[in-house]
Write a structure and sequence with these properties.
The chain starts with a helix and ends with a helix. The chain is globular and about 80 Å long. It has helices at 2-14, 18-37, 79-95, 97-107, 135-140, 149-162, 166-173, 202-205, 220-226, 248-260, 317-321, 331-337, 356-374, 379-389, 394-407, 429-440, 448-451, 458-464, 475-499, 517-532, 539-545, 562-573, and strands spanning 40-42, 49-51, 54-56, 60-64, 67-74, 122-129, 144-147, 192-200, 212-218, 227-228, 269-273, 278-281, 284-288, 298-305, 311-315, 343-349. It has 3 domains: 19-180, Trna Endonuclease, Chain: A, domain 1; 195-375, no CATH class; 390-573, no CATH class. Helix 5 links the parallel strand 6 (122-129) and strand 7 (144-147). The model is unreliable at 373-377 (pLDDT under 50). By secondary structure, the chain is of the alpha+beta class. It has a 9-stranded mixed beta sheet with strand order 10-15-11-16-9-8-14-12-13. It has a 5-stranded mixed beta sheet with strand order 1-4-5-6-7, with helices on both faces. A two-stranded antiparallel sheet has the order 2-3. 44% of the residues lie in helices and 15% in strands. This is DGQHR domain-containing protein. It comes from Rhodanobacter sp. FW102-FHT14D06.
Length: 574
């Protein structure tokens, strides 16, 4: 009997479809995310329809006020083929949103009676995929919002931390105009928010000429709506991002403090304010004061444009976001605090002509000055800040090369470059610090800089030493990054071809892998020896030399033994 049961159990286990399980998990995860964001789900899966002569189905529909999100899911590796079949229908819906809403209300019962005119609805299409798709797809379907595993995990973590308030940032990602969402489209309220405060004379602040420093009390609701945080591992473009992600545990502790201690945080929130900010005479809206003539601190009305992404939080994001719209035991009390002007804010107003790149550098430097004095900033955050403040440094160049390697070539989509990347990807901290930094340095006979034949390359040395103008990023930097990526990719491609796709793959368990940071760093060390000894640098040459690569016992080199592995590869192959 026992043997029969064991066989039956084994047979049932074998019949489980892993892809079906992955699909169920993905649907549950996405639906849970939208529930936390406060969007209602309308069932559409399995409902076939024909809209403007195009037949199709939608996996899910979500709605919040006049925002409608159409969700499509895939867990397969052939996402590009899948989206290609759907793209014509998506394009028709996107170009006929008002007619689509009239059609959808009649076809899907969950809509009920529309609260807004069909023309007032904003329809967005979100494509959820476990794997990244091709750059061609992203470029061709720029109206589709692709949430691969990394972006999805960011919003999922954010929603688990600040719940419905994460909807504000998700809507920013969808490029929605705040003034066109919900009741705001019918509101005739002011296009700015005003706060009573004080302005510091420019001579008192020691900031560069043209900067203004103000202090005022703001309500958390306004800051939640109008602010942005340049979190390093978020959905935004990589350039200029440096802050930590919000910590769920810390958020819970701060909400508990607000409700049990029943007092506000007394230290300042540090922000940057847009150049459109107006400093008016108190009680006289529109009458701006001339701050250049000030010799003492004086009272003003600080008027900030009322829209998303205008207030940059440099320090204090947890103190602001702990007022989020949650679903915990603290929400009843915190809801009453969100509208009170009880957060002390110090704001820096940029000069009118200040460029966006200069703003990012200013904010990153200010963040580092504040946080590095109070508690040591983590090394990965410091690396991100260094890319902003010192883009010509070797670490910054190495980080840029890693990003390029992860986008194209032999290691495409195999490297961890984001906090929310899958843990199965290869970690890059040792590759940046111990592999690439020595290879990319602007000196020595074993660096790619020595083999680079650009006639203007010495300018890069001057820029790194700070002896040349850095008002804008010089094209010579991009040239060197491109050269380093191409040179490194040549040797990696040759190694991948020789080792084969099975060994050049990411097994689910790190201990089962042949492709490791040790192997990658070993190949980098080998490349340094090739450069040092004047050997030809080309994928063809590497391919010929790697004919005997299998004679190197690669798997016996563990952890930090990359130097020894690189020397062994060079000795055997070159």
């Amino acid at each position: 009997m026992k043997k029969t049961k064991a066989k039956k159990k084994a047979k049932n286990k074998a019949s489980i479809d892993p892809q079906a399980i992955a699909q169920r998990r993905q649907k549950y995860a996405v639906r849970s995310l939208f529930k936390r964001l406060g969007l209602q789900r309308i069932k559409s899966d399995g409902v076939e329809f024909k809209f403007k002569e195009r037949t199709g189905e939608l996996d899910d529909i979500f709605i919040y006020e006049n925002v409608v999100v159409l969700g499509e899911y895939t867990v397969g590796k052939k996402g590009t083929e899948h989206i290609a079949k759907k793209s014509l229908l998506y394009g028709i819906i996107n170009n006929n949103q008002s007619e689509w809403m009239e059609f959808a209300v009649a076809r899907f019962s969950g809509f009920g009676e529309l609260k807004y005119l069909p023309s007032e609805y904003q329809v967005k299409i979100c494509y959820f995929s476990v794997n990244a798709l091709s750059d061609e797809v992203y470029g061709a379907l720029d109206y589709v919002y692709f949430l691969n595993g990394t972006k999805f995990r960011y919003f999922d973590a954010l929603a688990k931390t600040i719940h419905k308030s994460a909807r504000l940032e998700f809507f920013k990602y969808l490029k929605l105009d705040f003034k066109k969402i919900g009741s705001e489209i019918k509101s005739s309220s002011s296009n700015s928010r005003s706060f009573g405060g004080f302005v510091l004379p420019e001579s008192f602040s020691s900031f560069p000429t043209g900067f203004k420093v103000v202090s005022f009390y703001a309500d958390p609701k306004a800051l939640l709506t109008m602010s942005y945080v340049l979190r390093k591992d978020s959905w935004r473009d990589e350039d200029g991002l440096y802050q930590r992600v919000l910590m769920k545990g810390r958020m819970k502790e701060m909400r508990r403090y607000l409700t049990t201690e029943e007092r506000v945080f007394v230290n300042n929130i540090i922000v940057t304010l847009p150049k459109e900010t107006r400093l008016n005479e108190p009680g006289e809206e529109g009458k701006n004061i001339d701050t250049r003539a000030l010799s003492v601190v004086r009272d003003v009305t600080v008027s900030v444009p009322f829209k998303a992404d205008v207030i940059g939080i440099v320090d204090g994001q947890h103190r602001v976001f702990c007022y989020h719209e949650g679903d915990d035991q603290y929400e009843d009390k915190i809801e009453k605090l969100r509208d009170r002007q009880n957060l002390l804010v110090t704001g820096v107003i940029y000069p009118p002509a200040y460029a966006d790149a200069d703003k990012r550098r200013f904010e990153a430097k200010l963040f580092l000055e504040i946080n590095d004095k109070q508690r040591r900033a983590r090394s990965d955050l410091k690396h991100s800040i260094e890319m902003i403040l010192s883009p010509y440094s070797t670490i910054a160049i190495a980080k840029a090369v890693v990003a390029r390697m992860n986008s194209n070539g032999a290691l495409r989509q195999m490297l961890q470059t984001n906090y929310f990347d899958p843990p199965r990807l290869i970690r890059t901290s040792s590759i940046v610090s111990y592999g690439l930094r020595p290879l990319l340095k602007l000196e020595g006979v074993d660096s790619l800089f020595s083999s680079w034949d650009d006639p203007d390359k010495l300018k890069l040395v001057e820029l790194q030493k700070g002896k040349a103008s850095q008002t804008t990023i010089d094209p010579i930097l991009e040239k060197y990054i491109a050269y380093c990526y191409a040179s490194l990719n040549d040797i990696l491609l040759a190694a991948r071809k020789k080792l084969g796709p099975q060994r050049w793959a990411l097994e689910d368990r790190a201990k089962d892998r042949f492709l490791t940071p040790t192997l990658i760093n070993g190949l980098i060390v080998c490349l340094r020896l090739v450069i040092q000894n004047g050997k030809p640098l080309s994928e063809t040459t590497y391919g010929e030399r790697f004919a005997v690569l299998d004679q190197v016992s690669i798997t016996k080199y563990k952890s930090s033994s990359w130097k020894a592995l690189g020397e062994a590869i060079y000795k055997k192959c070159f």
